[in-house]
Amino acid sequence: MTTETANKTIELIIVRQEDPESKSYEEKFSIPYRPNMNVISALMEIRRNPVNKEGQNTTPVAWDASCLEEVCGACSMVINGKPRQSCTALIDKLEQPIRLEPMNTFPVMRDLTVDRSRMFDSLKRVKAWVPIDGTYDLGPGPRMPEAKRQWAYELSKCMSCGVCLQACPNVNDKSDFIGPAAISQVRLFNAHPTGAMHKAERLQTLMDGDGGLSNCGNSQNCVEACPKEIPLTTSIAAMNRATTLQSFKNFFGSDNTA
Amino acid sequence: MSSSNREFIYRRLHSLLGVIPVGGFLIIHLSVNWFATRGVEEYNRAAAFMEALPFRYVLEALFIFLPLIFHAVYGLYIAFQARNNTSNFSYFRNWMFRLQRITGVLVLIFVTWHVWETRVAAAFGAEVNFNMMEEIVANPAALIAYIIGITATTFHFANGLWSFAITWGITVSPKSQRIATFVTMGIFAALTFVGIRSILAFVGV
């Protein structure tokens, strides 16, 4: 370490919570600076030496992480007010003190660890898969046009990180809104040539029950917040159009199953 | 989770009624107001014509009051379901989202007061004419309340048109949504001009 960085520190304020039921509190940390750190390596430094800024021994901060290359979505947290992945949050690019909070749209388990089960429940609700299982080989499915594959690929980048739900003013404790991620997955699977065979069924999942597609209030925070730059608001509008047509088919038409 | 699509229908109905008929009525109302700029006689003639429309009470109930009440009550429910977060996400559209909810509440207060002072007063025998409005806005506080109320109404309508276009799947691409922002803000500016120019006619400006 050069003398220039020897006395430099990284200042952090972390919103902590013992367990899902207890109240949250803030704890300050001051850790030695090293070049090229990210929020994860700062948290690892606290884990190595769990002492807060006042010099008192404390418990290491709990957080989730897995891939460390922004493709798994596990390490999402609120960093200086914005939900994002902590692996790509570089210390040198953050204003200090760095404020770390859990994504409190989700149930907080401990410190920065949240329970993102609702992301997966939503994928189940909208049937975000292509059902092909059966008793015999169905043979190859229809081909997908290359141009369509290209935009559908962008939608497939969703890693269920939960950042769009945290940014959405309509996803909160007072509302059941399913959120942008799952809506975009309906568009993805309805674009798939084999997936499209269950198009009407998936659209129905967005119309039935509470907290469906229509709860979107068009604040468009999701598309600004998405780390994978998925065109979420385009997906929502496209599903609005598809459900408009589907509801007309359901009410006036006869061929409403596909 | 219930399996009915009741919420979907309510939300879509809320979006539709805001434009047809409530938004349509707003445009007619503002157009009739413009007669005030042409003088007392012209305004009173227009007001009398509207008042003398056949089936007036049926038309008022079906095309104004019932849709308006549904839009207002369900709109309040929607507005208070949001947890506004413009402090962390100060994007233009997030502000518009918040303003849509703020103006919605303002418009409800304004319209209730406006109906009380004009329609309810009329039901108790007051005559709806130029003189009535002249007396109301002679009070500077009432004039300011009218100017704020009109601006909130035209904003809520114009910005509501923008989200109406998305809700029904008309503007899907980001480009069409961006152009819709310009078009609807143009509508906001034009309707606000009409509304404020007309109310000022009652104070002789």
Automatic annotation (TrEMBL), chain A:
Pfam families named in the record: Fer2_3, Fer4_8
Q: Which UniProt keywords apply?
A: 2Fe-2S, 3Fe-4S, 4Fe-4S, Iron, Iron-sulfur, Metal-binding, Oxidoreductase, Tricarboxylic acid cycle
Coiled-coil intervals: none
Q: Name one GO molecular function term.
A: electron transfer activity
Q: Which InterPro entries match?
A: 2Fe-2S_ferredoxin-like_sf, 4Fe4S_Fe-S-bd, 4Fe4S_Fe_S_CS, Beta-grasp_dom_sf, Helical_ferredxn, SDH/FRD_Iron-Sulfur, Succ_DH/fum_Rdtase_Fe-S, Succ_DH/fum_Rdtase_N
Indicate yes or no for the key word Flavoprotein: no
Key word Iron-sulfur present in the record?
Answer: yes
Q: Where would one find the signal peptide in this protein? A: none
Tell me, which GO biological process terms does this entry list?
A: respiratory electron transport chain; tricarboxylic acid cycle
Q: Which cofactor does it need?
A: [2Fe-2S] cluster; [4Fe-4S] cluster; [3Fe-4S] cluster
Enzyme Commission number, as recorded: 1.3.5.1
Q: Which domain of life is it from?
A: Bacteria
What range(s) does the 4Fe-4S ferredoxin-type domain occupy? Answer: 149-177
Q: Please name the PANTHER family in this protein's record.
A: SUCCINATE DEHYDROGENASE [UBIQUINONE] IRON-SULFUR SUBUNIT, MITOCHONDRIAL, SUCCINATE DEHYDROGENASE IRON-SULFUR PROTEIN
Q: Which family does it belong to?
A: Belongs to the succinate dehydrogenase/fumarate reductase iron-sulfur protein family.
Identification of the protein by name:
succinate dehydrogenase
From TrEMBL, chain B:
Its primary localisation, in coarse terms, equals membrane
Provide the coiled-coil residue spans: none
Gene Ontology MF, one: metal ion binding
SUPFAM superfamilies assigned: Fumarate reductase respiratory complex transmembrane subunits
Subcellular localization(s) per the UniProt record: Membrane
Write out the GO cellular component annotations.
Answer: membrane
Task: Give binding positions for heme.
Answer: H29, H71, H114, H156
Q: Where are the transmembrane segments?
A: 12-35, 55-78, 99-116, 136-158, 179-203
Cite the entry's keywords alphabetically.
Answer: Heme, Iron, Membrane, Metal-binding, Transmembrane, Transmembrane helix
**What is the superkingdom listed in this entry's lineage?**
Bacteria
Name the UniProt record assigns to this protein: Succinate dehydrogenase
Tell me which species this is from.
Answer: Alkalicoccus urumqiensis (Bacillus urumqiensis)
Q: What is the lineage of its organism?
A: Bacteria, Bacillati, Bacillota, Bacilli, Bacillales
